[in-house]
Amino acid sequence: MKLEKTLKDIKEMKIQGAISIALAAVEALEDLIKNSKAKGKKEFLSEIESAAEQLIQTRPTAVALPNAVNQYIAEIRRLNGDIESIKKAAFAIGKSLVLKNMVATQKIAENGAKLIKNNQTVLVHCHSGTVTAILRQAKLEGKRFKVICTETRPWHQGFVSAKQISELGIETELIVDSAAMQVMNEVDLVLTGADAVTSDKKLINKIGTSQIALIAKGHKVPMYAAAQKLKFTDKKSSQIVLEERDVNEILEGKKLPKVNVRNVVFDVTALNMLKGIITEDGILR
């Protein structure tokens, strides 16, 4: 069943990127709706809400996941009529949410591409489908530029970014995370994605983002985060659970029996360290 596979794939990092995870969750719910045997609205809602809670628990930090799922559930709760018409309408709502996100991402791409000039070097951290969309749009507009990708340990999401960006015909380099300081004097612009933008004006994103922000600010290099409105939350940064994953992702089979190893996945950056947030409504500064 698609739900079980999606739960497994999100937990095992086979699906990466906050928006990709959120959309995968919506698609899993669509599949559940399509194959539901529920005979009434109460039973149907119980089935969908149970699946939604399981999906939300897979990644506690990225707010796009609960925001998308909760928005979907809220729309379904408002439906009335016989069970078959409710299922049909619920399925259509899911398709509408996916389409709405595609439109938002394209608008962000267009807004972000305006920041990229000819012959610039752009540094990107981790893997963000939204950032890749910005770079794709800039390339389509005929701009010539180079991209430097950080490897992003321990899951090496930077390898994914580097592969995708290079396949767009953009000159691409890959560096180790700790080389960010050394190469920053070559960089004109820094772009990252976002896992959450909080009410106390903080960006939560892949570990290393805050360090890159410090380095960029020290070198007077503008840094922007790309974030759909789906990633904004009323919560404060202190209310967001910062995920820590299995330490074996770092150890890779090595043994350190007397060492306390931590695999911290996300960090928090004050928005005043950035030049702005690129959204579908424009650039928030």
Describe the structure.
With 285 residues, the protein is α/β, with parallel strands linked by helices. It folds into two domains: 2-106, Four Helix Bundle (Hemerythrin (Met), subunit A) (Up-down Bundle); 109-284, 3-Layer(aba) Sandwich (Rossmann fold). It contains ten helices and ten strands. It has helices at residues 2-11, 18-34, 41-56, 64-77, 83-113, 129-140, 157-166, 180-183, 209-218, 248-251; strands at residues 120-124, 145-150, 171-175, 189-192, 196-197, 202-206, 223-226, 266-270, 276-279, 282-284. The strands form two sheets. The chain has a seven-stranded mixed beta sheet with strand order 3-2-1-4-7-9-10, sandwiched between helices. It has a three-stranded antiparallel beta sheet with strand order 5-6-8, with helices on one face. Helix 2 (18-34) runs parallel beside helix 4 (64-77), helix 3 packs antiparallel against helix 4 and helix 4 (64-77) runs antiparallel to helix 5 (83-113). The longest helix is centred in the middle third of the chain and has 31 residues, at 83-113. The N and C termini lie far apart (44 Å).
CATH topology of the largest domain: Rossmann fold
Give the class-level CATH name of the largest domain: Alpha Beta
Name the CATH superfamily classification of the largest domain: Translation initiation factor eif-2b, domain 2
**Quaternary assembly:** single chain
Order of H and E elements:
HHHHHEHEHEHEEEHEHEEE
Low-confidence stretches: none
The main sheet comes to: 7 strands, mixed
Count of the domains: 2
Shape label: globular
**Based on helices, strands and strand pairing, what is the structural class?**
alpha/beta
Strands of the largest sheet, in order across it? 3-2-1-4-7-9-10
User: Which second-level CATH architecture of the largest domain applies?
Assistant: 3-Layer(aba) Sandwich
Rg over CA atoms, rounded to whole Å, is 20 Å
Question: How big a fraction of the residues is strand?
Answer: 15-25%
**Averaged pLDDT:** 96
